[in-house]
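Record 1 of the preview.
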Amino acid sequence: MDLLLRLLTCIEPPQPRQDVLNWLNEEKIIQRLVEIVHPSQEEDRHSNASQSLCEIVRLSRDQMLQVQNSTEPDPLLATLEKQEIIEQLLSNIFHKEKNESAIVSAIQILLTLLETRRPTFEGHIEICLQA
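->
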């Protein structure tokens, strides 16, 4: 998980970052992580996959806000927002083999996808800390 998040956050030049995103998407990283949030998998794997997917959503959306003139959409976010991925997450929730950890993890991912982020202005954190 740490390596994946480093790949997403530490590559700053736009073209190499886009190349890494495309490569991760070609390797089906999103689909693989969603498969881990299946009731047949272990709890710690559910948690790690869920955290990774939630961070991918947040990082991708933050990046979109920062680089609004980007010509290429984020392929990982686009994949995560596809109907078949959402259906797979819902299938994991309603699977006949009930597993609380898988249900909670899938719901966390769905809630993250439904989040709306408001752009923050600089100094916002400082104002909150001083109050």
